[in-house]
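User: Here's a structure from my thesis project, written as structure tokens. My advisor, Dr. K., wants to see whether a designed sequence matches the one we expressed. Can you design one independently, without my sequence as a hint?
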């Protein structure tokens, strides 16, 4: 991708949203599409209509941008994200993040579903991401650096914004007594991990595992955004027996979707409360 590709997409979106300037961009993970119901003066833009924007393919994921206000705060949200396992290149996976930046947005909330590795976790918990692991995956910043966005060798010593992450943690605590914080390990998917991989990830310091978020977080940090990430723990990771599914220890997408579905209204309320933080900014 060239800088012009990002500009073209940005200009198209600007032509559709007029003088709305979103204060926060949100990437909606599995199940969180219900946030769409909360928008006032909603404008939807289909990914397929945006120049150079990739198009979503995975079942259960929509493919549109939502723009409008929630609790009076102008918001832009991705309803459906791009995953590496779908076959996209990483510059496609992270394309929307840079477009958000060119729209003038400096705050990003990444949400996802993940498998719990930390033995103190259980399905239905929410984990505020405080750091990430992606040793075995290529970087979203590989290739020619686009200096317009950031430097060649950006620091990743603090990807997730401490201040906003702390506030999100407090909000989760208000709605559940299962607020967690921890390290998110990125795996490329689409197969779930093996028990040996999960054991290794635990030894390496991971608390949860998933197939998204990390490329977007690195890209956002590179272009100077304040990033916050939250994982809904939809299942315990491979090889960890879940007290909730005694009849089968095989992980399935159905189990992930079932938990995401169960907690989606709580998740929505948490995000709605988080949005309020941007009212005064
Ligand atoms: N592994 C990887 N990705 C996931 C999982 C998991 O256990 N659960 C939800 N997304």
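Assistant: Designed independently from the structure alone:
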């Amino acid at each position: 991708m060239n800088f012009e590709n990002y500009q073209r997409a940005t200009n198209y979106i600007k032509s559709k949203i007029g003088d709305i300037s979103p204060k926060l961009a949100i990437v909606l993970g599995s199940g969180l599409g219900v946030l769409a119901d909360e928008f006032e003066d909603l404008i939807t833009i289909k990914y397929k209509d945006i120049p150079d924007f990739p198009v979503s393919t995975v079942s259960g994921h929509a493919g549109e941008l939502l723009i409008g206000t929630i609790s009076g705060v102008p918001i832009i949200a991705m309803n459906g994200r791009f995953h590496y396992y779908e076959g996209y290149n990483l510059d496609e996976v992270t394309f929307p993040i840079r477009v958000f930046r060119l729209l003038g947005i400096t705050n990003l909330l990444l949400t996802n579903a993940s498998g719990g590795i930390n033995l103190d976790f259980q399905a239905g918990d929410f984990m505020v991401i405080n750091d990430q692991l992606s040793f075995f995956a290529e970087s979203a910043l590989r290739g020619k650096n686009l200096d317009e966005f950031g430097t060649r060798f950006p620091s990743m010593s603090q990807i997730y914004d401490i201040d906003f992450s702390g506030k999100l943690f407090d909000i989760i605590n208000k709605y559940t007594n299962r607020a967690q914080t921890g390290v998110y390990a990125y795996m490329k998917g689409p197969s779930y991990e093996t028990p040996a991989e999960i054991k290794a990830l635990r030894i390496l310091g991971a608390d949860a595992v998933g197939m998204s978020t990390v490329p977007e977080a690195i890209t956002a940090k590179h272009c100077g955004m304040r990033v916050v990430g939250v994982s809904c723990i939809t299942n315990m990771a491979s090889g960890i027996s879940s007290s909730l599914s005694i009849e089968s220890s095989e992980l399935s997408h159905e189990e992930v979707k079932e938990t995401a579905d169960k907690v989606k209204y709580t998740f929505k309320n948490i995000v709605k409360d988080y949005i309020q933080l941007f009212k005064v900014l």
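When you compare it with your expressed construct, this may help: The chain has a mean pLDDT of 93.
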